[in-house]
Amino acid sequence: MTITRARLPEPGPSPPFTFPAIQKSTLPNGLRLWTVRHSQVPIVAFMLLVRRGAAFDPAGKEGLAAVTADMLDEGSGDRSAIDMHEAIARLGAQFDIDIGSDATAASVTVLSRFTDRALGLLSDIVVRPALREEDFSRVRQLRLHRLTQIRDMPGALADRAFLKLLYGIHPYGHPPIGTEASLASMTIDDVRSYHARAIRPGDATLVTVGDCDHQAIEDLARAAFADWTGAADGTVAADEEWPKGARLNIVPRPSAPQSELRIGHVGVSRDTPDYHALLVGNAILGGQFVSRINLNLREDKGVTYGARTAFEFRRLPGPFALQVSVQTSATAQAIEESIREIVEIRGSRPVTADELSLGIAGITRGYARNFETAEQISRAAMQLALYDLPEDYYAQFVPRIERVTIDDVSRVMSRHLDPARLTTLIVGDLDAIGADIGRLGLGEPVVVAHDSF
Amino acid sequence: MNITFTKHTLDNGLDVLLHEDHACPIAAVNLWYHVGSKNERPGKTGFAHLFEHLMFEGSEHHDRGFFQPLQGAGATLNGSTNADRTNYWEVVPSGALELALWMESDRMGYLLPALTQAKFDNQRDVVLNERRQNYENRPYGMASMALLAALFPPDHPYHWSTIGEIADLHAVQLDEVHAFFRRYYHPGNASLAIAGDIDVVRTLDLVTQYFGALPAGERVDPVRASAALDGDTRIYIEDRVELPRLYMAWITPAMFADGDADLDLATDLLANGKTSRLYRRLVFEERLATDVSAAQNSREIAGFGQVTATAAPGHTLAEIEQVILDEIARLAHDGPNGDEMERGRVQAESQFVFRLQTVGGFGGKSDQLNAYNVFVGDADYFDRDLQRYQAVTPSSLQQAAAKYLDPAARVTLSIVPRDRVALAAHDSAPAVVA
Q1: In this prediction, does ipTM exceed 0.85?
Q2: Residue A235: what pLDDT?
Q3: I want to staple A55 with a disulfide (CB 3.0 to 4.6 A). Which of A171, A181, A239, B398 is the partner?
Q4: CB contact B98 to A (< 8 Å)
Q5: Do B166 and B172 meet the contact criterion of CB atoms below 8 Å apart?
Q6: Which domains does chain B have, with CATH numbers?
Q7: Which chain B residue has the Cα nearest residue A140?
Q8: Residue A120 contacts by C-beta under 8 Å, 6 or more apart in sequence?
Q9: pTM for this predicted structure
């Protein structure tokens, strides 16, 4: 064999990918048990999913779901908060509680010899948290400090302000952490009541992936979760009415060397039939390194370290947003170029055949690598449970992406991106860029007050 | 528990490490160049990292973006630079291994003919924006630079940070980039690890074909330097922050040296997790701080230990400093207890096993093989690395804490809100940050 540098070698065919089988059963209390055997490494990853998240926060109590999640590992029964963390640490476990708009997930990963002890701890944490007053006061205080610190962080500040601009009082209008006022109004009774209403087995799924056996996990779970009962009450529903605010908004950050930008609007929900075409379209627009917007702003103009766009697909319509941090002097230019790219991909400059094939290949050809570790597989299974996706979802994913055409991309981008509705937010130096952004035709920038989001 | 591999050294000096793992139909290519910011000189900082960017801008036989063909084949890819080394990796479907080798070998052998002034200017602008985003416009973002500058003297290769100084980034010229490439980017200064769904014989054949003909470069001698602190250097920075933060840092043993594992466990038991001593006192019980963390930052020619805590509103860095000093003194005097030792050992074991889960990317098996090969000179080091942690005893840990976390030989950095210098720890002077 001799090599040539005259042309690139043609890759061989992609090996077929099969998502591993999920064994399923349901406990009498409604808790679904899903197990995937993945025995390469002696590890077991548990993930307990409850389909209630920050969008379930009662009005005026924004942040309650997240505080409750944070309180779960603060002791159980006679165990103090410190005892609980000592027990987790003694297993060498990776432990995490994650909360988003639609769900709360507690995860524990351990060496498989600690399987039973880890599951026992997980059930103590989720089912039998102590929820003590003194722990609550500390946890809430730390969250208030965190809110103080977010005021200094341009990216986090932009995310918060942007959600509020897009969603107003809608359940997606606040980040999980809530606000100073809502946290201040909360009591431990709110937390106990939220736990009783939302952290229930009727709608929950325990995903176990690793060096494990379904029947053994079921036997352990049956005992560990025996006294957990009930179903979460209510669901999150909201009118699809969004605020009609200013097109150009700014949170002043005097003498900042960069402007943190968000450009977008409320997008689509996870159950959209356009999901696959939108993934491809977004990859080409701003979802990959070689996207139009990143190549333009980074590789051509050099005004940023990186730009990206994403549709967040949630149970209700989630945001579409461009995120980028650009040098202050290029603020107006970056906004202008980004909006132009968003406008053009809707049809006036449709994606090319090369862009389409590269976008599709980037999503499909290396698909198997997304399922290498136990945690990756459990997160993938969790998506099925969270969004009621069909059993063959992962088997169908690659073929469905491969069927996306240029016309599909133009159609869905034009349907789900609306230039007239785009909201732009700048966290940056108003004095340095004020004059420059006047020419964008987006109106005078409206200063967003710190206490309004 | 080990990573089985074969090692070959090509005639031009390139080390090749191959590891088969057919669990997932992917192959990880991981290429280390033994060059980082420690190979730079004062006035020429930021060079190794800027160079990493240029490696993605095309080479002689593919003078276009590096990402497109690989992404078209289903790869993920990235690179990174630190003080000691630069790494580049691709994770590809197993059928695209040869493409990744073609691309990596072309930029190892044929980068310069494709390197133009325009690419260079563009990536310098990108790096200046990376610096703004990750350092200048980030709260507390300048702390690491100030710490390094105070810990290590001006001629020590760890004195400056990998991102580089702004003036140096503006001053660097294209011909210096060429010289840098010839000096450091050649087979004799590189280590190539390939892990995953591969056939070892065929892969070695491919590697030999693609890399074997590249000329061996001039040997790169190890960088040597020593540093010691002889007092408590107390400095502050005013920043756009609400809450003051205290950093305490010490010069500690290098990666894999005696005392490194002890200090790794010592900093864990001091401030890693809610059961750690400093978290319990500062955050949980006395509520003086809103967060606390600690780490032994192991590097090739020296390490530095670090404790960081942010003051809770209404509390001072003075209170926090006293608690940190108390707890370090207690550890240095009494050593760890049995629970702490058991916790440290099982956490080390778990972390080692967790790391075996991926073949590629940052920290995957291919990256670990290269780390051991480049820094220890022996890729067969996984078990011995774990044994370092299992060999730590209460008395060795105590002695390491006493010797290295010395209150009389440290750097104490305060980051305070602008115009609130009085909030800095006592007797602090303005830090010099370029």
Answers
A1: yes
A2: 82
A3: A171
A4: yes
A5: no
A6: 6-211 (3.30.830.10), 232-430 (3.30.830.10)
A7: B290
A8: A220, A224
A9: 0.96
